[in-house]
Amino acid sequence: MPLSEFELIDRFFRGCGTQRSDVPLGVGDDAALIECPPDRQLVAAIDTLVEGVHFPAGSPAASVGHRALAVNLSDLAAMGAEPGWALLALTLPRADERWLEEFSRGLAALAREFGVALVGGDTTCGPLCVTIQILGSVERGTALTRSGAAAGEALYVSGTPGDAAAGLQLEQSRLELADAHSARYLRDRFLFPAPRVALGRRLRAYASACIDVSDGLLGDAGKLARASGCGVELDYEMLPVSLALAAAVGPERARGLALTGGDDYELLFSVPPSRTDDLARDLPADEWRYTRIGTLRGESGAVVTRNGSVIDFSHYGFDHFASVR
Ligand code: ADP
Ligand code: MG
Fold it and tell me: What letters, b where the CB count within 10 A reaches 16 and e where it falls short, cover 211-234?
């Protein structure tokens, strides 16, 4: 007997994640009720993952559940917000119990890690597609945005971008790596990204602008700069690259992937010169895992410099790197 829609929701999604006292009514009614504190602003984001577009067909179900929430948590992280509640619109080709079990396990584990309650959703039949809407809150007037940066400010990135892009290539057998430990690390960076929620919340006191890196560091740096009405210069030599990524593709291609690969879900943020010492003192870079990679500038556009001269990405391997996704 296939699962009915009611049984499916009841078994896999009722009570998924953290049980929060500010949710007097969650899954089961026509809509959920949420108590929102009066001194805070509601923060909302939504993201869809389509099989074959945002993850390879046949990806582990736990990873699909994890990533669907992680990409949304990353958006809230970039706003400096505290996540609270999520809604899940799930389109499935069939009610495969083993798949659903694994999917909801991946989703629930990450939801519990970040104190998120699944408060509702929708379940339909069709090609595999997962949409999560996340809601969170932030102390009124303190949210980080893309538009607060200014020329002369320092630009930082968390983590080691490029890992997830290599992990995806490994998943798709487009890259080979003999070292099993490094291969596992890179695959996990794609399959199970760690949203930088704690860092985002702390950055509200230091950063002037923030964006999460989902479409490639260079492009997303350009978006932050454009939203702020300035430009940005990234220093090729300063780009942080993991040992695993350098081992997988060599140091040069590793930096290309760091600049143009996607799916990193790291934070890219600007800090005014007057705040960089405080940032380094209060949030030590080795503990919080971030690196200075460049500077905001007056002239518009995003450029990469190496030993003081601009690298032209239209000639310097850009096509090579662009073919990665
Ligand atoms: P309605 O027909 O009123 O929209 P549904 O039968 O679609 O209600 O859903 C019943 C309840 O189950 C609602 O509270 C809805 O939010 C919840 N729900 C449905 N699908 C999901 C899902 N995939 N994850 C979490 N909650 C879900
Ligand atoms: Mg209804």
Answer: bbbbbbbbebbbbbbbebebbbbb
Q: Which domain holds residue 105?
A: 5-139
Using the mean position of ligand 2's atoms as its centre, give its distance from the Cα of residue 264 in Å: 37
**Tally of domains within the chain:** 2
Q: Specify the pTM.
A: 0.95
Residues 65 and 134 both lie in one domain: yes
pLDDT tens-digit readout, 2-45: 788 999 999 999 999 999 999 999 999 999 999 998 999 999 99
Q: Using one digit for the tens of pLDDT, what is the confidence trace for 135-184? A: 999 999 999 999 999 999 999 999 999 999 999 999 999 999 999 999 99
Q: Which ligand is nearest to the CA of 31?
A: 1
Which ligand lies nearest to the CA atom of residue 124 in the structure? 1
Q: Ligand 2 centre from 30 Cα, in Å?
A: 4
Q: Which atom of ligand 1 is nearest to the CA of 90?
A: 23
For residues 67 and 187, membership in a common domain is answered with no
Check whether residue 71 and residue 213 sit in a common domain. Answer: no
Between CA 116 and CA 270 the distance in angstroms is 28
Helix (H, G, I), strand (E, B) or coil at 225: helix
Find the 38 Cα to ligand 1 centroid distance in Å: 28
Query: Which chain residues have CB less than 5 Å from ligand 2, an ion?
Result: 30
State the amino acid at position 28 in one-letter form: G
